[in-house]
Amino acid sequence: MEKKFIYADNAATTAVSKAVLEEMIPYFTEEYGNASSIYALGRSAKKALETARERIAKTIGAEASEIYFTSCGSESDNWAIRSVCERLAKKGKKHIITSAFEHHAVLHTCQALEKQGFEVTYLPVYDNGIVKAEDVKNAIREDTAIVTIMYANNEIGTIQPVDEIAEICREKGVIFHTDAVQAVGHVEIDVHKQKIDMLSISGHKIHAQKGVGALYVRKGIPLTNLIYGGAQERNRRGGTENIPAIMGLAKAMEIANTDILKRAEKTARQRDRLINEILKISHTRLNGDPVKRLPGTVNISIEGIEGESLLLMLDLNGVCASSGSACTSGSLDPSHVLLALGLKHEVAHGSLRLSISDETTDEDIDHIVKVVPEVVERLRNMSPLWEKIIKEDNSK
Ligand SMILES: *Cc1c(COP(=O)(O)O)cnc(C)c1O
């Protein structure tokens, strides 16, 4: 039998698509000029760079002058938050509002700023994995410098009330940044219409390469210098531009935003099949709101098993997935996201994240929904934790 290989971890990273790769290749081979050089080869690189900026801006309703290229989503998050805080601290604004389940690129930046004397409010996300806009409103103070709330969560896929939060921030004159790394290309975004001030993008989550990202910054919001050394990115981020990666990002943004609703519908159908089938296993729960979620992301807690063992067994059965626990970081602590939802430690440990893409087929879903219950049963049969759960059930 042919060995199966199903990649269901697109929230961790994606394959570079063929069209993206094709877009990039000429910029390695013929069009390799430095965008700062004066001769034709350099000018043509410069032109490609500025066209890419325009193309990306267009996909999110921004202007080209509002797009800055970065090396990744983490850099975009760091730059946005630190930039605003550094500038506004001088005006006495040293308060940050964020949520308890942000990506570490945001959380650790906030924690670093705390050490520098900033005060941070970490808003709760409740058991549906969603921040309340009302809570943002109540948390805003005279000295609030920035509100940074993610567009969609990377572990559970819930979509946040970004429009309402943005509206509140605009009304109160507070800058609103959103980490949209998981949302871009999966939900329709129009930064001007939605009143978003700053938005982070990463290439490798949308079928472009690793190591390229972008930051949208609304006109009129100054950015502080990130890298000294050159005039690139309007003097704010020195360093010769990675034109092939940037061209790939532009292509990936265009593809991801074409027929977005139709594609999301197909993916959401597959996602709901995953949810419905896996929830047939006893002692499972879907993490996060069933409706307000990304089309491709599922996170289910399965009691009586260890997330890591589940992932290894799934791998042996040809399925790449991820767990709610932060196993990637080498830590055995349960995920801060699942704990923020109010899950108990042992439940948070046995969680499964499946994140599918356009390339996922119905046959892939068939295979996953066949393999997961089998693997769970085998693991539970070996688990003292499961024995305890069953005993407790029986004594009820
Ligand atoms: C992946 C991810 C990031 C980090 O992006 P990199 O390009 O890997 O640095 C930030 N935020 C969210 C929500 C992500 O999913």
- What class do helices, strands and sheet pairing give? alpha/beta
End-to-end distance, in Å? Answer: 46 Å
- Shape verdict: globular
* Order of strands across the main sheet: 2-8-7-6-5-3-4
* Percent helix: 40-55%
Low-confidence stretches: none
Bound molecules: pyridoxal-5'-phosphate
Can you describe this structure?
It is built from 15 helices and 13 strands. The longest helix has 20 residues, at 40-59. The chain has a seven-stranded mixed β-sheet with strand order 2-8-7-6-5-3-4, sandwiched between helices. A four-stranded antiparallel β-sheet has the order 9-10-13-12. A two-stranded parallel sheet has the order 1-11. By secondary structure, it is α/β, with parallel strands linked by helices. The structure holds pyridoxal-5'-phosphate (PLP). Residues 72-74, 77, 103, 105, 150, 154, 179, 181-182, 202, 204-205, 213 line the site of pyridoxal-5'-phosphate.
Can you describe this structure in just a few lines?
By secondary structure, the protein is of the alpha/beta class.
Question: What features would you highlight for this structure?
Answer:
globular; 4-stranded antiparallel β-sheet; 7-stranded mixed β-sheet; binds pyridoxal-5'-phosphate; 13 strands; single chain; 15 helices; alpha/beta; 396 residues
Secondary-structure blueprint:
Elements: E1 6-7, H1 18-24, H2 26-29, H3 40-59, E2 67-70, H4 73-89, E3 95-99, H5 104-115, E4 119-123, H6 133-139, E5 144-148, H7 162-172, E6 175-179, E7 198-202, E8 213-217, H8 232-235, H9 243-256, H10 260-278, E9 284-286, E10 297-302, H11 307-316, E11 319-320, E12 322-323, H12 336-340, H13 345-349, E13 351-355, H14 362-381, H15 384-394
Parallel strand pairs: 1-11, 3-4, 3-5, 5-6, 6-7
Antiparallel strand pairs: 2-8, 7-8, 9-10, 10-13, 12-13
The structure holds pyridoxal-5'-phosphate.
